[in-house]
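Record pair follows.
FIRST:
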Amino acid sequence: MAELMTEIIADDKSHVTVLKWSSDGALLANSGFDTSIKIWDGANHSLLKRLEGHENCANALLFHPDDSRLISASSDSTVRFWDIESGEETKRFKPHSQPIVGLNVLPGGRHLATSSYDKSIRVISMENGEEICRVRGKGRELGHLSFLDSGEILMSGGIHTDFSFWSIPGGKPLGRIEAHNGGVATMRLFQDGSVVDEVRVKPKSLYSPQYAPDGSMLAASGADRKIRIWSVS
C-alpha cells in the first residue's frame, strides 16, 4: 500500500523531469526544464539548496557515493560536480559536443559514464575527466545507463524500444533486447524477477519515479511541476 504524504511545487515554470535520492535517503535532488537544480530535505521535504550554473537543463543527476557531492549532466554538454554543503560548483567536464542525457558511476566510484545525442557513450575519470572508453551507438537509444557484472557490462536504453549491451572498457556490442513497443506508459513493480503490480500512466505526464533507498518512500515528478512523495508499506 502507498499513501500520499506530500506534494511539493518544485518549479513555478516548467516540468520537473529528474529526481534522485541520496544513498541514505536524507536528501532528494530534482531538476527540470529550467537550468537550476534543487536539493530537498528527505524527511521534512523543505528546500535546502538551489544550485545554479548550467546554461541549459540538467537531464541526469547522481549523488557521489559518499553523498557529499552531486553530479549533474546537462543539455549544455557539461558534467558538473557540486558540493552539497556549500552549494558551489567544484569542477566540470565537457565530454560531449551535444546534450548529455545519461549518467552513471561505475562500481568502485572512480569512473563516470555519460551518454549523449552525439551518438556516443563515454567513460571518463571522475578525477580529471580523461576519457577511458568510447562506445558508438545509433542515436537516442543511448539514454539511461546501468552496469552489470561489477561494471564489465554496460546497458543503455533511451527513446527507442530496446536496450543495448556493451563490454567495458572495450566498448564491444554484446547484444540488444526489445523491451517495449513504443513509448513507455507503464510502471511495473518486480519482486524476484516477476511482475507483482502494474500501473498505467499517461505518456509524458510522469517522470523519474524513485524509491528511497530503504524502500519506505516513493517519489515521482511530473508535467504539473510537482514532486509527490508517498509512504510505502
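SECOND:
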Amino acid sequence: MSRHAPGASPRGRRLDPTHAPHRAFTLIELLVVIAIISILAAILFPVFSKVRENARRASCQSNLKQIGLACAQYTQDFDESIMPVEVSAGTSGDYVTWWGTEDSTYHYHMDAGHGLLQPFMKSAQVQSCPSFDSSISTDKGLTGYGYNSDYLSPFATTANGTCAATDAYKDCVDAAGNSTTRTVILAQIDAPSKTVQMADSAQRDFTTGKLSADPFLSAPNDYFPSIHARHNGTANVLWLDGHVKAMRVLYHSGTFGPYGYQASDYTALNLGDLDEDGNFDTNELFNGTGKP
C-alpha cells in the first residue's frame, strides 16, 4: 500500500492538473502553421478578389441600365430619333456629347454634368464604371463606357449623304465648322435586342501603351479593339432594347488590321471585340440588323 495520499507527489506536494507545465511550439511546428496560413491565403485571396469584382460588375450593370433608360427617354422626346454621340455647341471645336460638354477654349475641359443624357439622369457619376479609373483621361470626363456611334450616330460625310458644307476630309460641318452626324430613327433598327448601344470601353494609348478612356466604340471591322473585358474577363454591354448582359470578348491573334497592330498589345490590356460569327470583317452586333 502506498504511503502517499491520493494526488500527492512522492515528496508530499499535491499535483494540480490545471497548472501542468505548458509546452511551447517548436520551430518546425511554427513553420508548418505559417505554411498552412500561406496556402489558405493563396487560395482565398483570389476568391475574395473575384467576389469584389462581381460586386463592381453588378454596380456597372446598374449604371448601364440607368443609361439605357435615359437613352430611351431621349428617343421618346425627340420623335424616335436615337441619341447622337454629339451635337455642336455652336462654337468652333465645342460639342455637347453624350458624356458631357467639351470646351476647347479651356484646354478641352469636359463638363460631365452637362451632357445629352444629364436631363434624364441627373448624375454624371452613373457614367463612371466602378472598375475603371476615369482619372487617366480627365479631358474626356467620366467615360468608362463607349457608344456605338458607327451605326447609331454616324458622322455625316459626302459618302453617306449630301452636305451643306464640308471640310478638307469631305466630312459635313455646320456653320461653326464642327462635324455633324446623321440622324438614325429607331424604326431603322431591325434587331434592337442584338444591337450594341453602349459597353465597357477603353483604348490603348499609342504613346504610353496604357489604357485611356474611349467614349466611342469601334466595330470589329475598324480593327481597333475597344471593348474592355474588365470584369473577370467579361464586358458589360447595353443593348438597344435596354437589356444589359456581361459578354465574353474575342481577341485578335498575331498581327492584324491595315496598320499591323500586335494582338498581344491589346490582349494584355483585355481589349477585344464583340462578335457572333467569328469574322472580324462583319459587324452583326453593331449594324442594327443582327446579321453579317
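COMMENT: The chain has a mean pLDDT of 86.
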